[in-house]
């Protein structure tokens, strides 16, 4: 039962009749079979040792297979660093089950980026008239920040940060992209602006040009 047999035969095999084919299959089964003693010899204390059958068909026991025939698998055991900003752009809508307790407490946030999970957000974070007029916000972009995502839940939990505006407009879409990737697009501080030349128009002095390589 632990042996997988794949048999091929052509017209020449068929000419010898079914008995000849059965004999060939029987011989193949004998070659593949390993009794308990042979298995014990094949598996040593230090690891897997080659047997005489290594060059032929293999039995369905991964311990007896060479590494090149095995697919390595792994699982995530710990997150060292969270690279994603946990911010996403998307839309909010009411939950489908109006009779549930969750419907009276949360709304569903659907990110534009489908790699980000859908998020439960509190109705307190939503606009005041969202429950009574959800259609008014069907095309409104929002920024949501993911707070938690439990292992046994298909949906994360998060908080609405702000409303960006209508989807499809340049400014809301641009602000959403910059926020998702954690780009600081706030105004420069006065200290930073003081480092720039104050007298305009500004030109490079001849002495500075003499020290530089002109790549214009």
From TrEMBL:
Record's GO cellular component terms: P-body
Protein localization: Cytoplasm
SUPFAM superfamilies: Nucleic acid-binding proteins
Alphabetical keyword list: Cytoplasm, Exonuclease, Hydrolase, Magnesium, Metal-binding, Nuclease, RNA-binding
InterPro entries listed in its UniProt record: Dis3_CSD2, NA-bd_OB-fold, RNR_Ribonuclease
Keyword Nuclease: yes
GO MF entry, a single one: metal ion binding
Major localization listed first in the record, in broad terms: cytoplasm
Annotated ranges, domain CSD2: 107-182
Residue spans crossing the bilayer: none
Coiled coil: none
Domain of life: Eukaryota
GO BP terms in the entry: miRNA catabolic process; mRNA catabolic process
Name of this chain's protein: DIS3-like exonuclease 2
Record lineage: Eukaryota, Metazoa, Chordata, Craniata, Vertebrata
């Amino acid at each position: 039962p632990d042996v997988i047999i794949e048999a091929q035969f052509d017209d020449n095999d068929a000419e010898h009749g079914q008995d000849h084919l059965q004999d060939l299959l029987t011989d193949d089964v004998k070659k593949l079979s390993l009794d308990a003693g042979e298995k014990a010899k094949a598996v040593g204390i230090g690891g897997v040792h080659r047997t005489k059958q290594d060059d032929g068909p293999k039995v369905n026991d991964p311990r007896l297979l060479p590494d090149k025939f095995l697919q390595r698998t792994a699982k995530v055991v710990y997150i060292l660093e969270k690279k994603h900003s946990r911010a996403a752009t998307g839309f909010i809508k009411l939950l489908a089950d109006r009779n549930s307790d969750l419907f009276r407490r949360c709304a569903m946030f659907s990110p534009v980026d489908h790699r980000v999970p859908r998020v439960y957000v509190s109705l307190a974070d939503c606009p005041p008239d969202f429950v009574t007029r959800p259609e008014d916000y069907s095309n409104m972009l929002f920024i949501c920040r993911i707070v938690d995502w439990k292992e046994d839940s298909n949906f994360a939990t998060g908080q609405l940060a702000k409303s960006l505006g209508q989807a499809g407009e340049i400014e809301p879409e641009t602000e959403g992209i910059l926020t998702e990737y954690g780009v600081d697009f706030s105004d420069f501080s006065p200290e930073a602006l003081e480092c720039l030349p104050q007298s305009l128009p500004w030109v490079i002095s001849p002495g500075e040009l003499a020290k530089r390589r002109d790549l214009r």
